[in-house]
Amino acid sequence: MRKIFVVIPVLFFISCKFHHLEYDKIIRNGMIYDGNGGEPYKADIGIKDDSIAFIGDLSGVSAQISVDAKGMAVAPGFINMLSWATESLIQDGKSQGDIRQGITLEVMGEGWSMGPLNSTLKKQQQESQTDIKYKIEWNTLGQYLSYLEKKGVSCNVASFVGATTVRMNIIGEDNRDPSPAEMDSMKFLVKQAMEEGAMGVGTSLIYPPAFFAKTNELVELSKVASQYGGSYISHMRSEGNKLHEAVEELITIAREANIHAEIYHLKAAGKDNWGKMDSVIRRVERARAEGLNVTADMYTYIAGGTGLTATMPPTLQDGGFGKLRERLQDPVIRQQTIKDMNSKTDAWENFFYAVGTPENILVVGFKQDSLKKYIGKSLAALAKIRGKSAEETAMDLIVQDSTRVECIFFLMDENNVKKQIAIPWLSFGSDEGSYEPAGVFLKSNPHPRAYGNFSRLLGKYVREEKIISLQEAIRKLSKLPATNLKIQKRGELKAGNYADIVIFDPAKIKDNATFDKPHQYAEGMIHVFVNGVQVLKDGEHTGKKPGRFVKGPGYPQTP
Questions:
Q1: What is the biggest distance separating any 2 CA atoms in the chain, rounded to whole angstroms?
Q2: Which of 48, 110, 453, 476 could form an S-S bond across to 53 if both were Cys, CB 3.0 to 4.6 Å?
Q3: Which of 376, 374, 375, 398 is nearest to 386 (CA)?
Q4: Could you tell me if 455 and 523 are in contact, meaning their C-beta atoms sit under 8 angstroms apart?
Q5: Rounded to the nearest 5°, which phi and psi values hold at 421?
Q6: CB atoms near residue 353 (< 10 Å)
Q7: CB 363, CB 382: distance < 8 Å
Q8: pLDDT the model gives residue 15
Q9: Coil, helix or strand for 217?
Q10: E-assigned strands of 33-139?
């Protein structure tokens, strides 16, 4: 009995001392939503360095920092499956618009990626910069992501290699197939990107020059990514009149390249196509039942955002934007383009026809200061102001601004948005940058999804409309995309995983950004940790920038 009496206090002392040293931070009393979709449970989380060290009861154990999460949801950091923070993070690495929604990983690369860049592409990229100006201090995609990490970002970053970028490196912007030698060069660039840490190959097939790529070209590039365990992710060739055919192309690529394939921002665009969503969902589920790994992501709005050039035939851009601008000044071509813009067609994705009226097109971004006075107005209103037709006004604006002119297009059905949110194999992406309502960012209007996409899911569609449960929403924001991308040690609250953790009030989280006033932060996110470092404290940014380059499955893993 004497020995037992002596040993127990010693062990207790050692245990307490061990706990004292083990945790830098403790999150206490929160409801844990671990990312797996199961029922939440009350527990504490101990963080050591950049990782979760323990989940359980840590009452009586102290740490350097203690966060009381009573009444709050504690979840894995959210993954933005379609981020366009490529330039906004260069301007401001704090990533406030997304951090305040709980985004801890930005995944980029929708067709265009920030590498690989040859000298011609670097020159074009430099010249095409609008409000955000920066020096291009990298050549490859891996170098760009490492550049962000070194510069300092609050969020983690990852990217697909853009098939458009690869094509432009080797072929340029011409409407033609690659030669066998060119195809080999394109495949080599994909191989290089995968070995640097790319997540796979990304496409945006409604936009030239990506529009010019045939299915077999995409299969060949995807086969390279597949060899490294990567994915194929696509803004499909059509989201409207040929939606079914576009889904079939994606499924064909998944099958022939033996690769996980994801549909970017799943939608049925244009009122004539709204009824197709049920059959699209059934087709994907049939492919999944056959053993193909096909998934999708979406944003939580009925409007999309892209260039005003999407109202015109892609063939006008054969040879590049400069050729488009030149052609739009030819009276004969202008007359034909007006006819094309008003035609229902299966040959290309006609956004002018799909929206039904130019009142459903909001103009939100220009390069030229002289045109910025028009930001926030509809194309119909601008046509009236300028005394021309909507079609002529669209062409004039592109010529005068020397850009594609950023716009918002109202194309989708709210009932479909709700239906898609409930799909178990669907995750979420903003399709936007991450901004703050200050400085250079105020020179243009983003889509409100930049500030509200994820909080809108949790507030409007989970709490208010109860489309899915909170635990299911969190699974779709964390574990599901991490699993799809084969990302290790993220997407789940689990001992040994990186401490990407968000703490929010389920009763208060909501989006505030609107189409009229998009520069408004969401609310209800209280604390955010990235790699164990607190970047949001009591709803305010701490200024910390612990984000890392999260590498894909092809990157050589250290033992």
A1: 103
A2: 48
A3: 374
A4: yes
A5: -55, -30
A6: 18
A7: yes
A8: 40
A9: helix
A10: 41-48, 51-56, 65-68, 73-76, 78-80, 103-108
pLDDT, one tens digit per residue, over 144-155 is 999 999 999 999
Q: Are 63 and 26 in contact (CB under 8 A)?
A: yes
Q: What is the spatial distance between Cα 218 and Cα 190, in angstroms, rounded to a whole number?
A: 11
Phi and psi angles of residue 23, each rounded to the nearest 5 degrees, phi first: -120, 130
Distances (CA, A) of 92 to 101, 155, 496: 17, 11, 30
Residues with Cβ within 8 Å of 265's Cβ and at least 6 positions away in sequence, in order, are 82, 235, 239, 297, 298, 299, 304, 429, 431
Tokens 């699209």 belong to residue: 280
Measured at the alpha carbon of residue 297, what is the angle toward residues 296 and 303, in degrees to the nearest 5? 125
Q: Which residue has the tokens 């103009």?
A: 363
CB within 8 Å of 164: residues ≥ 6 apart: 111, 112, 203, 204, 207, 209, 210
C-alpha to C-alpha distances, 170 to 160, 166, 176, 184, 550, nearest whole angstrom: 18, 7, 12, 10, 27
The closest alpha carbon to 229, from 275, 269, 197, 276, belongs to 197
Q: How far apart are alpha carbons 26 and 54 in whole angstroms?
A: 9
CB 209 within 8 A of CB 167: yes
In this structure, which amino acid lies at residue 237?
R
| Ramachandran sector of residue 165 (left: φ over 0; alpha: ψ -120 to 50; beta: rest) | alpha
User: For residue 361, which phi and psi values (nearest 5 degrees)?
Assistant: -120, 115
Tell me the CB-side half-sphere exposure of residue 107, using CA atoms within 13 A.
29
Judged against a pLDDT cut of 90, whether residue 8 lies above it is answered with no
Could you say which DSSP state residue 558 is in? Answer: P
Dihedral of alpha carbons 371, 372, 377, 379, sign: positive
* Nearest CA among 486, 544, 509 for reference residue 75: 509
- List all residues 6 or more positions away from 3 whose beta carbon is below 8 Å from its beta carbon: none
Measured in degrees and rounded to the nearest 5, phi and psi for residue 483 equal -65, -45
Residue-wise pLDDT for 184-220, tens only, equals 999 999 999 999 999 999 999 999 999 999 999 999 9
Query: Which among 373, 351, 370 has a CA at the least distance from the CA of 361?
Result: 351
pTM of model > 0.70 = yes
Neighbouring C-beta atoms of residue 559, cutoff 10 Å:
2
Q: List pLDDT tens digits, range 43-90.
A: 999 999 999 999 999 999 999 999 999 999 999 999 999 999 999 999
Separation between Cα atoms, residue 4 and residue 27, nearest integer Å: 34
Contact of 137 with 536, CB cutoff 8 Å: no
Q: Alpha-carbon distance 108 to 433, whole Å?
A: 10
